[in-house]
Automatic annotation (TrEMBL):
Its cofactor is Zn(2+). Binds 1 zinc ion per subunit. InterPro entries: Glu-Q_tRNA(Asp)_Synthase, Glu/Gln-tRNA-synth, Glu/Gln-tRNA-synth_Ib_cat-dom, GluQ/Sye, Rossmann-like_a/b/a_fold. It comes from Pseudoduganella buxea. Belongs to the class-I aminoacyl-tRNA synthetase family. GluQ subfamily. It holds the Pfam family tRNA-synt_1c. Residues 13-268 form the Glutamyl/glutaminyl-tRNA synthetase class Ib catalytic domain. Its EC number is 6.1.1.-. The gene is gluQ. Catalyzes the tRNA-independent activation of glutamate in presence of ATP and the subsequent transfer of glutamate onto a tRNA(Asp). Glutamate is transferred on the 2-amino-5-(4,5-dihydroxy-2-cyclopenten-1-yl) moiety of the queuosine in the wobble position of the QUC anticodon. This is Glutamyl-Q tRNA(Asp) synthetase. One of its GO terms (molecular function) is glutamate-tRNA ligase activity.
Amino acid sequence: MTAPAPSVPYIGRFAPSPTGPLHLGSLVAAMASYLDAKAHHGQWLVRIEDVDRDRNVPDADRHILASLQRCGMHWDGEVTWQTQREDLYEAALRQLGQHIYPCGCSRREILDSQTRLAATSPNATLVYPGTCRAGLAPGKSARALRLHTHGTRIVAFTDRWHGHVSQDITAEVGDFVIRRADGFWAYQLAVVVDDSAQGITDIVRGADLLDSTPRQLYLQDLLQLPHPRYLHVPVVVNADGEKLSKQTGAQAFDNGASSQALLEGALLPAARFLGLDLHAATIPVFWQAAIPAWERLLRARGAF
């Protein structure tokens, strides 16, 4: 995959889920996407990924936006919410047509079908064996909609941080869900449709989503959408080596702290985690130093 042509304006984004306040791990992802957009003199958009309604926490989106502003990260244009864009997902579903089929399998049934589950993660992707690909078994009703991947070639791309990445979707993932059993849109479809609709040219996010990128590239091809560039930064982990998240007890970094406390307790540690050795007395001075430092870091890695 090649970089966008120089004539294409850079448009990046930060897309948090409103499942709670931002923590240090999400701040690292937000900061990397913001710095990359600013270093490229581009736009930085914010999209609230609230399509999984069962996990949304009331007012979490408002708290997220307030925290970004208190940290000095100001977005371009209007904030968007996925729950306001479901007509776009319906249109994409119709476009996929014969590539999708109903599935009546539960997660337990897939696991029991001798499928591969990574022992290190209870949330690892189950390789779907194609049980319902030829039609629902007698007595089964449709639970989800899956995307047909059988026979798909290996999907490869160049990540700006990790270099060459490839995945055999059929062998490593199988036919994956695009509308879930609970009726909600799956992340893979929603993010691809949203990024295209917003004209996103560059996606900067955590390396925990590196494994999802080949599926998104495959969907982009089926929907005849352009490929953005990708950069996946390292993720913050806790003392047990688990990704820092709300599920693993990550604490909010912004609990009404002073600007100085935000700078010293959140912004500077996040920047140092990304490899930026910065010192600043105020938040505005921090960003003045961080943007060129990010460009220097990426140029040294051959990733700018």
